Amino acid sequence: MKRYFTIGMAGHIDHGKTTLTKALTNVDTDRLKEEKERQISIELGFAPLYEDNEIQISVVDVPGHERFIRQMIAGVAGIDLVVLVVAADEGVMPQTREHLDILGFLGIRNGLVVISKIDRVEKEFIELVKEDIKEELKETVFEQVPMLLVDSIANYGIDELKAMIINMLKEQEMRDIKGAFRLPIDQVFTVKGQGTVVRGTVYEGRIEEGQSLMIMPKGLEGKARQIQVHHRPAREAFAGQRAAINLSGISKEEVERGDVVVSSEHFNVTRTIDVAIQVVEDLDYMVKQRMPIKCHIGTAEVMGRIVFFDRNELKAENGEILCQIRLDEEIVAKRGDRFILRRPSPQETIGGGWVIDPQGQKYRFGERTIAALEQKKVGTPGERMVTALMEAKSLTMVELMAHTSLDEDIVKEELQSEDFILYNGKEYTLKALVDLNEEELYNRLRDFHTSYPMKQGLNKGELIQHITKQYPKGLLDFVIEEAIKLGIFKRKEQFISLKEFVPHVPNNWSVRVENMMAKLKSDRMKVRYFSDYLKEAGIPDNVAIDLRKFLEDTSQIVSLDGQFYWHGEIFREAVAKLKKNTGIEFEVGEAKDILGLSRKYMIPFLESLDRMGFTVRQENKRVWK
């Protein structure tokens, strides 16, 4: 499968990130007039870097100025590799350090350092810059990353840098495309004649053109009318790609940066999150209990308060702190999501961490709460497996181990629990998901039977089509087969129905149908066109289609030629009479004499006997089977 990645350019203002991006991609990511005039990046910039049959790489150029830190966090939150840019003539600067802290808190582990503007300094000074950078990177996740020298204007080192990025990403696992689709929005705009367009980096999952979507936390519903990846139309977009989605049914005014496009309702909408955080080493001010903070999560920036359970303030702390963030507005979050905390005034990055539980509750102050959060943080093996399957819906043993970082023996032991179900011999799911889907399909069949009581049921494709985007088809097939085994559903030919359901004429048409059938029976074998009976009974065309099929399926009527129909009893009487008064074989004339029918009815009747397998035609004769 082709893999998709997004890399980010980070670093201090005016250290050459945008120029470097242009040298790599031939795209100027500064689009705004103000950006051109002031020669600084204000908004996120995007460009395609590289694509072949195996891999596609995009670039996010994030603003370096401290005033635009929100845009910076929104940009790097979805990246897979970071290029930390340090200008040779200035070296490590305050924003370099802050970006480095933020990248660490967001869990971005893959990266490299680029020393830019090398044409502006002597070689000896470049060595000092290298040493300075190495010192800053000590005891960080970027301590051992490669370091390259570039001159973006002269194109020196650009090819080498590009090759290194490609090779590093070819060794990296891409984001999960099996889970539900999620795209935090970082840009919203309109296109004349098309409507609302949102853009962002696909965090996980995949999306197809025409797919139904939700905008959370607002709960708006719409569809992906069109998809673009780097200004090129695409039928689908995958985790790791930069994508623009043209939304139908949603106006620009209803959507904003920080909202999240999802394909499933299972994502948590919350205002209270239990978290594990770390703080920066050089905090300028004390962080106090219930202090106002800005929480940056995904592309959202939300005010809230930090709540401690084992302290009332902190200034410096090396380890992880378990606490809670209570937000002023709803966000979309799930376990494992990374975030950044900043002080609103005076502005500074406090720290960051990850979400332990997106549905935090109110707890008492004290060690008992800390112990409970610690246990929740670690999570039992079973809990971790449940979480993985709730997201992916279905995983093999190997995939379960990869998603949970658990050993095979532990996974096998946990799978003995009734919470887990093995299906198709190799994939596992949750009993809760099987029950949930069974209930969903039960309700769909019940509603269908209510709307179309004369139909046998739904074929499998129609029954599951509304949830095939959310669940693997193999899992849905398993749910149906299990429900049939348990006597909840039944199958007749290709149709699935509820076990207790019997096709029937709805009450509001039953009297008219009884009168019509009585008239058809009284006309015996010399009937009129069946459409005449339907019209006389006052049965409209939209009901007549289902009624005719129902009466045929239940053998209450028998078609001679699609226009003439006999009442089922009359047809069976005719077959019995003809068989009684003929030998092994008979001719048309003989049958006409026995039944007293003209050729108008006789020929269609005999052809229906052939079609239904009562007889076989041999030249001018028919032989009973």
TrEMBL record:
InterPro entries: Beta-barrel_SelB, EF-Tu_GTPase, EFTu-like_2, Elong_fac_SelB-wing-hlx_typ-2, P-loop_NTPase, SelB_WHD4, Small_GTP-bd, T_Tr_GTP-bd_dom. Keywords: Cytoplasm, Elongation factor, GTP-binding, Nucleotide-binding, Protein biosynthesis. It is found in: Cytoplasm. Its main location: cytoplasm. PROSITE patterns: G_TR_2. One of its GO terms (molecular function) is GTP binding. Residues 2-173 form the Tr-type G domain. GO terms for cellular component: cytoplasm. Translation factor necessary for the incorporation of selenocysteine into proteins. It probably replaces EF-Tu for the insertion of selenocysteine directed by the UGA codon. SelB binds GTP and GDP. This is Selenocysteine-specific elongation factor. It comes from Robertmurraya siralis.
